[in-house]
Design brief:
About 35% of the residues lie in helices and about 15% in strands. It has helices at about 1-15, 70-75, 75-80, 110-125, 155-165, 175-190, 215-235, and strands at about 20-25, 55-60, 90-95, 130-135, 170, 195, 210-215. It is globular and about 50 Å long.
Length: about 260
């Protein structure tokens, strides 16, 4: 009986101890994990887990290239997250790049529909006693002929901000943070943060590549650090699980 009582006690306290918190990432290519044939293109979400204490937080990256809020719902990618959510988990939601693309009718989402989709995401997460966090879209690298940075996202970042305010959702303003990053780096040096490759420099892109939307490993890691900065500023409960900030690497193991 003594051993049975001990077993039941250990079982009881073990049951009270929650499994590691999961952060689910819902978003587009700027956040997504990349296939080997796309390297060195890197999503900032790939670096996020390294900023947390081991075994305390896991990151499930459901972000995918080319997705808008509309297609993320239509393809049942949102449902896949909702079905796995547990109490106390987090969902980091970052869309806008593809929603705003009027020329790409397969993914375009009107401002009104974008707003409604964000609200649906928030309500869906809260119904499961999990925590939604809204992220404004990260900046594209754009400079005019005078070398001045300019934004391409139109009203979509403000829609995210408004939904966050109106529905009392934590907001991490990556739009503002990455604007500051690009302005600080300037027109030339900011190329290092994006997929700028010369001819013959990488076997995945033998003809070279100039891409001012998708990040290099260096850019993705720096942007992930900005996201962690935002976690601290928003005073999310996740702060307690952050590890000492690791040295900057800018490289992932599966980079060719």
């Amino acid at each position: 009986m003594k051993y049975l009582a001990l077993f039941l006690t250990l079982f009881y306290f073990g049951a009270l101890q929650k499994a590691p918190i999961t952060i689910f990432l819902a978003g587009d290519s700027t956040m997504a994990e990349k296939q080997p044939e796309k390297r060195p293109e890197t999503g900032w979400g790939e670096f996020l887990e390294k900023f947390f204490q081991k075994d305390s937080v896991t990151v499930e990256n459901h972000a995918r290239n080319g997705r808008s809020t509309r297609t993320f719902i239509q393809e049942n990618r949102w449902q896949a997250i909702a079905e796995k959510l547990g109490e106390g988990d987090y969902v980091f939601i970052q869309f806008g790049h593809n929603d705003e693309s009027k020329e790409k009718v397969d993914r375009y989402t009107s401002p009104d529909e974008f707003r409604e989709n964000l609200i649906m995401f928030v309500n869906s997460v809260r119904e499961r006693k999990a925590i939604p966090v809204l992220f404004t879209p990260v900046m594209r690298r754009r400079f005019d002929k005078q070398g001045r940075f300019y934004d391409t996202h139109g009203e979509y970042p403000d829609i995210v901000r408004a939904v966050a305010q109106q529905h009392a959702v934590p907001l991490i303003d990556m739009h503002s943070k990455t604007r500051g990053l690009l302005v600080d780096y300037g027109e030339e040096k900011s190329k290092e943060l994006f997929l700028h490759l010369g001819r013959g420099e990488n076997p995945n892109y033998p003809e070279g590549k100039i891409d001012n939307t998708h990040f290099s490993p260096l850019g993705a890691e720096i942007v992930a650090r900005l996201a962690v900065e935002g976690i601290r500023e928003a005073k999310l409960d996740l702060v307690r699980y952050l590890a000492p900030i690791p040295a900057q690497e800018g490289v992932l193991n599966n980079e060719p």
